């Protein structure tokens, strides 16, 4: 297919952006940008029963958070609008009627009761349900009469019942299906709106979409789409069907099962760039060992050939690691800006230097939402058991810890200046004088001033942030606890 590459992301406004949606949008975006093409946003809202109020705004917000800027869409316009399917109702009806005139579609007036009975009969006999074409042979007079009487109708596609239909997919190769397996699918529903299967073909053609990127659950429907393209004599787009995304248990990702949406991950403290980077690798390989990509690197590296047929495994631990890498790549100012909202609930002491806390935290943070529980000791020393002073690897016990804390208390009291450099020199000098290992002094100090085994930062950094008065107060408490 020649000319400008045009891809589209066409979500249904059902409430949130799940990870599969995000990946579809991302791959469509990358294909367009790699080829200097256009990325289009189209809202597919023909299934009115599934619509959730406010969902279109969620789509806009999610794309903005992911930095997937569309070139055309409902909010910014374009020469192929409207970009919301419910606003294109008359267009679909026009093309459905053209199919009827060409003999590739027909009016169906069967009511719900008849169709339910037909389905029950098929199930009872063990046969695959297919519409029995009861209405296909109605005369023009009968059809005109029923339309004049305003009888409810749908428009069905007339499928070939012999031979096969094949199509080429850029991921799964050539796929062939027996035509006798195809049901005469509904194109226009009784409410006058099109089905997804019809609307997406009409819109993709009219919007000049060259590459259709979607999940592999649509593979079985694609022959029906191709029959529509062929009936109209239209060019068939390049198909790119994407593999499933599974949990490590083999279960499909599902919001109902508690799997996080894109917005959930953002609220949990994952950075949008890290999420997008990770999602890019769910089903695509760059052919190298590189895992961290800037947006430009993703665009330049991405290729349809790198997409796998095999299901991708969503590993939250791998995402967490990648998020940590992104956090560490930020400037201190950028990290501090992201971290500050998490300080407000955990720290009330206005005398603490939050910028210093950020400096300590940045290299030790993988997830922003863990910040409050990692810094709560700055405000108030938590209750702790003296047994945590005992640490085999640090070669400390209660006796060594008590001796170290008493010595440290004397040294710190005498300091006229208070910063990490001064504290460091004083404690290193003390360690040398006592003839002990660093851990035998620094471990007890860290326990005494934090009350925790795991902390963001070491004893010296934390003491500097707490200040002389609070540090000495906490060391005295530690001495009392060990005495």
Q: Characterize the overall form.
A: elongated
In the sheet with the most strands, the strands line up as: 3-4-7
Q: Helix coverage percent of residues?
A: 40-55%
Mean pLDDT, as a whole number? 95
Low-confidence stretches: none
What would your notes on this structure say?
By secondary structure, this protein is mainly alpha-helical. Helices cover about 45% and strands about 10% of the residues. The protein has 19 helices and 11 strands. A 3-stranded antiparallel sheet has the order 3-4-7. The chain has a two-stranded parallel sheet with strand order 1-2. Strand 8, helix 7 and strand 9 form a beta-alpha-beta unit. Helix 1 crosses helix 10, helix 12 crosses helix 13 and helix 15 crosses helix 17. It is elongated, with a radius of gyration of 32 Å.
Helix-strand layout with pairing:
Layout: E1 6-9, H1 19-34, E2 38-41, H2 55-65, H3 89-102, E3 105-108, H4 112-125, H5 140-148, E4 154-157, E5 164-169, E6 173-178, E7 186-188, H6 196-206, E8 211-215, H7 222-232, E9 238-242, E10 245-246, H8 262-267, H9 272-280, H10 295-301, E11 312-313, H11 316-328, H12 332-343, H13 354-362, H14 371-379, H15 398-413, H16 420-434, H17 438-450, H18 459-466, H19 468-482
Parallel strand pairs: 1-2, 8-9, 10-11
Antiparallel strand pairs: 3-4, 4-7, 5-6
Helix pairs in contact: 1-10, 6-7, 9-11, 12-13, 15-16, 15-17, 15-19, 17-18, 17-19
